[in-house]
């Protein structure tokens, strides 16, 4: 057996004498373990929140969005649409006309985000799981319908059952002066509300209508759109499809993935994760400093043993390795225990959802968690580095005690 490791193990596990230094070593080990466990759990929760946001965006937003680099609208002639549909990996292409408008229902009014979509929009089946009331219907037998978000329904007290009260959408005409004495200042459309959906508050002011209705309200030309939304085939390489679409549309239009559209949110989560990681790393560092003190006191306590070892022919390198191994036993025992507990807590939360969100309107019941192997490896490397740094100086002092 490796002699330095055997001696270090004897120093740590010997139960004949539990001195103050032994208890300090155990407290150091517990500190490293708790800090490691907290780091794994908190990083996994932030991973879960990021994953949850991706799932929420996936419920309403398309895989790819083509929009104008300058201005709000652009022309999408049938030739361009056909070329885009032929790009390998593209499943659905939906033309969209979107802008803010005024919604009126009975005696209530509110500002809504009006989104006019092609008939194939509902074939994407994104809203199927988000439907609260009514049905997903935009056009039937020549009649136009609207699908409203739950926030709009609440603001206007809309009842999808009441087919006699239409939802009126008003959009200001360009070049008209706004006045109560000028009834022609707004384009108007009246639609029956077919259904109500809820995803999260970010989409609570949306009203979905047929594309022709939105174009009529916004005074768009027949081929004008605000954006083109594309749904990709399962397993399609997102970056390759994005590059192929960009080659088709040229430099005047921009192709963005869902992550590109929400890059600020993902950056905020990344920064939050970074600062939380740094904060918990400092906690582990403080626990590791306790290892420094416990090893320093152990060196003082074992001065007689060190002299005997030198007399028996031990080298300075061997003495240094004894105390480095002692520090490694303390830190790695705590780190491995913390990693195992952290992983078990995350797996239990993922399966049983012990810790609830605590809000009725939440889209999920329990806090989401996602274990990332890179976080576990990074945490392990961090603990090892801190252990080496905090154990080196006491070990070096022990090695030099012969002088």
Entry keywords:
alpha+beta; about 400 residues; 13 strands; 11 helices
Distance linking N and C termini? 29 Å
Q: For the largest beta sheet, what order do the strands appear in spatially? A: 3-4-10-7-9-8
Average pLDDT metric? 85
Helix content: 40-55%
Question: Which descriptor suits the 3D outline?
Answer: elongated
The secondary-structure class comes to alpha+beta
* Beta-strand content estimate: 15-25%
How many H/I helical runs? 11
Tell how many strands the DSSP assignment holds.
Answer: 13
Q: What does the model show?
A:
With 403 residues, the protein is α+β, with helices and mostly antiparallel strands. The protein has helices at residues 3-13, 20-60, 78-85, 150-156, 211-218, 238-249, 258-261, 263-301, 303-311, 316-352, 373-399, and strands at 64-68, 74-75, 90-105, 108-117, 131-134, 139-140, 143-149, 167-172, 186-197, 206-210, 224-225, 227-232, 253-257. The strands form two sheets. It has a six-stranded mixed beta barrel. A two-stranded antiparallel ribbon has the order 2-11. β3 (90-105) and β4 (108-117) form a beta hairpin. α1 (3-13) crosses α10, α2 crosses α10 (316-352) and α10 (316-352) packs antiparallel against α11 (373-399). 33% of the residues are buried. The mean pLDDT is 85.
Layout of SSEs?
Blueprint: H1 3-13, H2 20-60, E1 64-68, E2 74-75, H3 78-85, E3 90-105, E4 108-117, E5 131-134, E6 139-140, E7 143-149, H4 150-156, E8 167-172, E9 186-197, E10 206-210, H5 211-218, E11 224-225, E12 227-232, H6 238-249, E13 253-257, H7 258-261, H8 263-301, H9 303-311, H10 316-352, H11 373-399
Parallel strand pairs: 4-10, 7-9
Antiparallel strand pairs: 1-12, 1-13, 2-11, 3-4, 3-8, 3-12, 5-9, 6-7, 7-10, 8-9
Helix pairs in contact: 1-10, 2-8, 2-10, 2-11, 8-10, 8-11, 10-11
């Amino acid at each position: 057996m490796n002699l330095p490791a055997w001696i270090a193990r004897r120093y740590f596990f010997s139960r004949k004498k539990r001195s103050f230094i032994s208890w300090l070593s155990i407290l150091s080990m517990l500190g490293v373990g708790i800090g490691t466990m907290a780091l794994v759990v908190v990083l996994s929760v932030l991973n879960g929140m990021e994953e949850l946001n991706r799932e929420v965006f996936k419920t309403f937003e398309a895989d790819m969005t083509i929009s104008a680099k300058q201005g709000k609208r652009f022309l999408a002639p049938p030739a361009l649409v056909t070329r885009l549909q032929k790009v390998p990996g593209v499943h659905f292409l939906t033309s969209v006309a979107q802008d803010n408008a005024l919604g009126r229902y009975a005696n209530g009014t509110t500002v809504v985000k009006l989104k006019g979509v092609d008939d194939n929009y509902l074939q994407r089946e994104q809203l199927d799981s988000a439907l609260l009331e009514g049905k997903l219907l935009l056009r039937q037998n020549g009649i136009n319908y609207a699908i409203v978000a739950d926030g709009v329904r609440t603001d206007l007290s809309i009842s999808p059952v009441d087919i006699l009260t239409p939802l009126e959408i008003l959009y200001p005409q360009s070049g008209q002066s706004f006045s109560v004495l000028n009834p022609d200042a707004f384009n108007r459309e009246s639609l029956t509300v077919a259904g109500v959906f809820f995803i999260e508050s970010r989409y609570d002011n949306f009203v979905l209508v047929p594309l022709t209705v939105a174009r009529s309200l916004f005074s768009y030309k027949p081929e004008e759109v605000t954006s083109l939304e594309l749904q990709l085939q399962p397993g399609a390489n997102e970056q390759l499809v994005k590059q192929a679409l960009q080659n088709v549309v040229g430099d005047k239009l921009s192709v963005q993935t869902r992550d590109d559209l929400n890059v600020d949110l993902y950056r905020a989560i990344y920064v939050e994760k970074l600062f939380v990681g740094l904060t918990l790393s400092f906690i582990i560092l403080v626990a590791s400093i306790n290892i420094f003190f416990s090893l320093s006191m152990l060196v003082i306590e074992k001065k007689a043993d060190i002299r005997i070892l030198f007399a028996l022919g031990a080298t300075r390198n061997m003495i240094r390795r004894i105390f480095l191994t002692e520090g490694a036993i303390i830190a790695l025992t705590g780190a491995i225990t913390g990693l195992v507990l952290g992983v078990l807590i995350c797996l239990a939360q993922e399966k049983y959802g012990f810790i609830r969100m605590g809000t009725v309107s939440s889209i999920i019941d329990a806090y989401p968690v996602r274990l990332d192997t890179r976080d576990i490896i990074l945490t392990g490397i961090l603990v090892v580095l801190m252990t080496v740094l905090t154990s080196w100086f006491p070990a070096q002092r022990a090695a030099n005690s012969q002088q």
